[in-house]
């Protein structure tokens, strides 16, 4: 989900969507949000947001994957969208396979480089870089009991509600971290691992995973939000969703020596999460 330009609150929006790719049991749907104004008369310049959603067909009785109807791209634009979606699908499969590889096959040098500064924070905090901060020290969280008014047509909690709560927490995390109002850029990735039911005790935790500071005028803040369905009576807590957001800082705030701190992991688990997101972002940027 990529925000291409700010959306005005006093101008109408047009939302259009279409199935752009299908596999055996999965499909990808692309949505475009356009907002016309006097400053952007051209249709191509009026696209404010583009989002790609992946859905999987499920058998209502068994819960297993079910085949979906096929589509045939005809125009040049449809064929281009199909190719891009197919590449994203292949990338998801590659990433899933990479996650299952043994740690011995991972890039040890990158892992150790990320952990080097974090070890100084843990072992010699007085000597740590004052322009850096540990991931764990950027943590924010909140909790809620899911209410009936938040359910969808299937009786579960609406995914859009979960995304909104995650975005609000991510925005607050970026705000408290940067010390200036952040500007939303994109939703990098959202995972729905299990449904959330009415009455569930839902806990959100948010962290700044890493920052990108190569361009001082446009620093990037990458935030992870994890949602847990918690059952205290059973002493269980299961991950229901993971959300990844990217923010920057408004240009007017980038003055008078203002700077964003570097974020470093303290544990190997944190370092793996950072590398996973960096690699996923690099793969996305490399797409045609």
UniProtKB/TrEMBL annotation:
Molecular-function GO term, any one: fatty acyl-CoA hydrolase activity
Coiled-coil segments on the chain, per record: none
BP GO annotations? acyl-CoA metabolic process
Recorded superkingdom: Eukaryota
Q: Which PROSITE patterns match?
A: HOTDOG_ACOT
Is Transit peptide set as a keyword in this record?
A: yes
Q: Which residues form the HotDog ACOT-type domain?
A: 1-61, 136-253
Which UniProt keywords are given for this protein, alphabetically ordered?
Answer: Hydrolase, Repeat, Transit peptide
Q: Does the keyword Membrane apply?
A: no
Q: Which family does it belong to?
A: Belongs to the acyl coenzyme A hydrolase family.
Q: What is this protein called?
A: HotDog ACOT-type domain-containing protein
What species is this protein from?
Answer: Dipteronia sinensis
Its organism's taxonomic lineage begins at: Eukaryota, Viridiplantae, Streptophyta, Embryophyta, Tracheophyta
